[in-house]
Every structure is written in structure tokens, then in C-alpha cells.
Known about the structure:
Layout lengths: L9 E5 L5 H9 L1 H4 L11 H18 L3 E6 L2 E11 L2 E8 L7 H14 L5 E6 L7 H6 L2 E8 L2 E9 L2
Parallel strand pairs: 4-5
Antiparallel strand pairs: 1-2, 2-3, 3-4, 5-7, 6-7
Helix pairs in contact: 1-3
Amino acid sequence: MPAEAMNYAISFTRLTTVDPREIAAHMSDPRVAEHMPLLKSAWDEAAARDFVAAKEKCWARDGLGHWAIRSNDNYVGWGGFQKEGDEWDYGLVLKPDCFGLGARISRKAIAFAVSDKRIPAVTFLLPPTRRHLRALERLGATFAEEVDYNGEVFLKYRLTTE
């Protein structure tokens, strides 16, 4: 984690505030793809623009979606809540040099979910390659089931926010 990231507040903004080239570079890093089995192709500026447009559709449909995440006003990744059926799924994808910010960002996002009455529970879909799950347990999340999502197996955890 960059030293300057430790000293500044985390903020959530819309993905439209980030240069698509920066998102494309982030998502093209092989260290990001290690735990993203659905990330099967390289990203370019057009792919990043399509991604942002799809996330903006979620905002229009549900009034909530994924954010660009900033620390010290620098883009460190994206994540947030997306409606999957009747459930709100939480996702977080950080730049590799910012992986250490995950717990701090997630605590802030979960606090948001607890305060938002639209979100009675949050789900987390994690690939089986994720071995360190203690942070989820400390948040109070419990294992729900294994699910198939687009042909890939994920471990589904649930956290009640009410």
C-alpha cells in the first residue's frame, strides 16, 4: 500500500470520474486477474468505457451501484453494491499496490449498507482461490453456499445488515 494512502480518507465517487485508460490499466494487471475467474480477456479503453456504462445502468435501475474508490484523491480501485436478483452483492477490486486498503474500504462500505434501509443483507461472492476469509468472519458474514456464476464456482457469504 502506498504510504500516502494510509494518511487520507477513503472516498467513493462515480466510475465516470475516472479516466477509462486508468481503469483499463488496473483491470489488465495480471495480479488483479488472479482472483477474478470471470476476467478472461485483456481490457482496453473501449472495454473500460463499456464497463462504466454497464455500471451506470445499475445506478439508473437500482439507485445504487459500484463506485470508483479513492484515497488521497487517487483512484485505488472500484467496488460497492450491485443488485443480483433480490440480493445486494458487495464487490471490491483494488489496484495491486492498494490491496492493503481492502479492510478499511470494506468497513466503510458495510457501514453504508447498514445505514441504507434498501440493503437488509449483503452477499459476497468469492472464488475458491481466496483462502483468507477471516475478515469476512470478523464482519459477521457467514458461509451460505457454493454457487455457479457464468460457469465458475464461487463461495457465497451473507451478512445481515438490519
